[in-house]
Amino acid sequence: MTAKLKQFFVKTGISVKNFFLGIGNGFKTLPQRLKARWNAFVSFLKNADGNVVASCLLMGLGQLFYGQWAKGLIFLAVQAVFVLFFVFIGAKGLVGLFTLGTVESNAWYGVEGDNSVIMLLLGILSVIALILYAVVYVANVKDAYKTQCAYDSLKTPPTFRKELSSLLDRNFYKVALALPILGVCVFCVLPIVFMILIAFTNYGGTTVPPKLVDWVGLENFGKILTLSDFAPTFFKIFGWNILWAVLSTFINYFAGLGLALLLNRKCVKGKVFWRLFPILAYAVPGFITLLGFKFMFSYGGPINYYITQAGGSAIGFLDIDAKWSSRLIGLAVNAWLCIPSSMLLATGILSNVNGDLYEAARVDGAGPWKQFTKITLPYVLFATMPVLISQFIANFNNFGIFYFLRGGLYIDGYFLASDTDLLINWLYNMSIDNNYYSIGAAISIVIFVVTSVISLAVYVMSPSYKQEDTYQ
Amino acid sequence: MKKLVKHPRRLFGVAITYLILLLVAFVFLFPILWLVLASFSKSGSLYSFRGFFPTEYSFDTFVKLFTDTEMYNYPRWFANTLFIAVMSSLIGTFLTILTAYCMSRFRFKSRKALMKTTLLLGMFPSFMTMTAVYLLCTQFGLVNQHWGLILIYSAGAPMGYLTQKGFFDTVSVSVDEAARIDGANNFQIFVKITLPLAKPMIVYTLLSSFVWPWSDFILPKLLLKKKELWTVAVGLMSLDDTEFSRYAAGSVFIAIPIVIFYFALSRFLISGLSAGAVKQ
After folding, report:
1. Residue B41: beta bridge partners?
2. ipTM
3. Higher local confidence (pLDDT), B96 or A469
4. Judgement on whether residues B91 and B201 belong to the same structural domain of the protein
């Protein structure tokens, strides 16, 4: 190992250590912080006057007593809306979250039963509403207390108009971030929560509404690991998935780096021209090229045309028994798709390498290979580590390649999958095409745990996160 | 030249370099060239080709693409794709710029936690929750609705705010402070100073959030079950060997705007990629 690379690993180790130390320190100072909170709370209890207590009992009441009509009425209205929501929908939703329905529908007796999935959704929404209510409630009490404190220290509290205008200034971020956060919550967080919860139910197969769904605990995870239907398929696919992610990341990364180095050579004239071709390949939407390659390797495709012209018989490159040829084609096609982006990335990073280093190395008699392993590689590896990890994850979850090349094939020895399918393809086959919703959800939790642990750790370690403020 | 002749080893190295470059250019260009040629083929079927090359060239396929719409309504698909992509690009850009601005210019309590959370959520590839999205959409009645797709695309857009935040980080805050001394509030500063300064970034965001819905196939395939609602990606996926040149023509037509966009922005591409974005 070169010194720089060694240094890199040492640095990485230190960052990992600091990450965990940070967590440890967080816990160590926790009693202190809790104590401060508690003290503030005790002084609040001691000092709070009748108006604040009124706010605690009924949102907005204290504000009304203080003569803050607009604010008080708004809080009162919010309280009314929440109460109505919980009386008519929320309470039922919260109960439904636990029972997931008790009455099965029966067309024969004309019984309209419970729809477990809708009850689950309503349950999640009610919990969110409850959290929202808690937040508003605390804000309301804090607000009343702040007014009291202002009066106690003989100041006039800010007028309603002033507080409104602060929403455009000091608190502008609250207004601006409300919409994006709402959108992300509904369309990114809600599906994730929903999916996680489904992994602990028996939803799927024949157990779909109007039949009742039930909580089953960790049964689905146990099924993946032990049941003779799922377990062999899971381990086979998991093994291939790891192999695929490692191989394709390795190939794409080093081929891209090699191409960038080649283009960086002094003797190459017209670098922009040569760079056009990979960029062209990068620019064409992925589904077009994937379909194109599928046509290219099909029975009637050009490759088989030349094989038959030469006297051979057509080969089913992507056929049901063509395990390794389709895997290799998958690797090659993925390389074709991904090398341009990793080349562009490497080009950007190589332009930052200090040229003097090479000059010094040349003076010391280092050949091109030595220069590569001792200067270029450590530097590029260091700079692209986070991207490399995220590429690994993207490859791990590369849905498109085998969905296009070999989608919809089910092979003996695999449960609803083929020998090129990755976990993400299996997940798709199981849940979208075959209704195994809960098992599919359990698989996606497995994928998520594997990928998110890696990426969060790497992000916290990366310099761009730590030194974020130094550039401003 | 003389120098090269003096050093035969170096000459050999240069020759090898150019040979590899030629090979690389060929490998990347050829499949695309093949599709372009195929789009000008007179007969539509893959079986009528002589290897990679059509037997006869003509402009018919493009005409057929837009006129023969009974089975494969390409103009309709194209309009659908355009509508979805434009709407999600507009809404998504609005949300992304707002998010990036707030994350860059404000220091509030939950900021770091929010950044970490978005990163964690971002590591959840959007299609990994596709089962849940699909089920939710069936419950909310968003299946077979273009607005459902638009909502999903644009609501997810602020998650990729990091590039834009990086841009705002580099814009100096001294102008803001001068404006604040003159009595402007943050909202006015955002509208009157930051937005005009961020014009190139807005254009970049508009275009890049246009590309995703324009070339996505997973969500439309999942949520659009009716033929007349399909996007181009889903439509092209339904074509088989005998409609090969129709597929090629349709692909060429939809790839051209994207290719132009990428070439126009190839300077941005490198920095965008270094920010951690990876093409699917």
Report:
1. B57
2. 0.82
3. B96
4. yes
